[in-house]
Design brief:
- By secondary structure, this protein is an alpha+beta fold.
- It folds into 2 domains: about 120 residues, no CATH class; about 150 residues, Roll (Pnp Oxidase, Chain A), CATH 2.30.110.10.
- The chain is about 35% helix and about 25% strand.
- The protein contains 11 helices and 12 strands.
- It has a 7-stranded antiparallel β-sheet.
- A hairpin with a 4-residue loop joins strand 2 and strand 3.
- Helix 3 packs antiparallel against helix 4, helix 3 packs across helix 5 and helix 4 packs antiparallel against helix 5.
- The longest helix has 18 residues.
Length: about 325
């Protein structure tokens, strides 16, 4: 069998075992896995391993298929899982001996617009829905859980005192970086100390940004940002980009060695390392927004990083 199934007709004519084996090895080409094949895959998993395992198997397989076709960012977690939940509900209501019989009893599943009975376009187009499961906002899907994001309701347990919270995290050294973004007209940079690697596959980075920061609207508008990890020779740069009195716009970068990187993003040339990222998703995080970026470019050099420790820059 060839590495890629090149005919949509052939992909749907494979017997069940061949079909699922090809799917699990990422053997369908980018245009050779139509919506009907997605429904068939969901039906097979639901009937073979049950709804709960089907959700994970389908999500993992679609994510791997997107990666195998060189388009990992096309994976949409909410849509992938929603169709499995819809298929599982239909299987419960109308068990069928084979897939074609199942489709004859549930022709609505072949209409991709069915998703709009459960989700508004705004929700489906959001970065959060693409990155993780979001529950329907128009009508519930039987068996579907609550959203994976959204936070917890506060419990009747007092939160730790702010001073104790700051003292604890002030005792842990953290890297200091400058996050920058541009919307094509304006540019902004800010000092960030809550930056961490999140995932290797795909390569993701996490940055926590105050909700009222001027940089957030630029990141949302442009869907790109850069992170320059400062070296120990740049404490003044860290203080500069943390100062509310600094100039606005491009004037912030006057006198600070930098270059325009991917999409015109400012990269500080004396930094110990830098990243250029696409916005992957954004989550609420109390008085901050949690910004996750898909790293498109990255580089580091032999320079000691600047760290924040006990309210000092070292």
């Amino acid at each position: 069998m060839p590495d890629k199934i090149t005919s949509e007709v052939a992909s749907l004519r494979l017997d069940d075992d061949e079909f699922i084996a090809t799917f699990e090895r990422g053997g369908f080409g980018g245009g050779d896995f139509p919506h009907k094949a997605h429904i068939r895959m969901a039906w097979m998993y639901v009937t073979r391993v049950g709804p709960e395992a089907a959700i994970d198997r389908a999500a993992g397989g679609i994510r791997a298929l997107a990666k195998a076709n060189g388009q990992p960012t096309l994976y949409h977690d909410t849509l992938t899982r929603a169709w499995v939940y819809l298929v599982a509900d239909a299987v419960t209501k109308s068990p069928s001996a084979n897939f074609e019989e199942f489709l004859a009893r549930n022709p609505q599943l072949l209409d991709k617009r069915l998703r709009l009975a459960y989700y508004s376009p705004d929700v489906l187009s959001s970065a959060q829905a693409r990155a993780t499961w979001i529950a329907p906002d128009l009508a519930p899907i039987p068996g579907a859980p609550k959203s994976s994001v959204g936070g917890r309701e506060p419990e009747d347990v007092p939160a730790v005192a702010g001073a104790d919270y700051l003292a604890a995290f002030g005792s842990v050294p953290t890297a200091v970086a400058v996050m920058a973004a541009t919307d094509g007209v304006n540019v902004h940079g800010m000092t960030a100390s809550s930056v961490t690697s999140l995932s290797m596959d795909p390569p993701l980075v996490l940055v926590c940004v105050q909700r009222e920061s001027r940089i957030l609207p630029m990141i949302r508008a442009s869907t790109h940002f850069s992170v320059s990890f400062l070296s120990d020779r740049q404490p003044d740069v860290a203080r500069h980009f943390a100062s509310p009195q600094r100039a606005a716009g491009a004037a912030q970068f006057h006198g600070i060695p930098h270059r325009a990187g991917r999409f015109g993003l400012p990269i500080l040339t004396d930094a110990s390392a830098w990243l250029a990222c696409d916005l992957w998703c954004e989550y609420p995080g109390g008085d901050h927004a949690i910004v996750c970026g898909l790293v498109r470019e990255a580089s580091g050099r032999d320079a000691h990083p600047l760290v924040s420790y006990s309210q000092r820059l070292l």
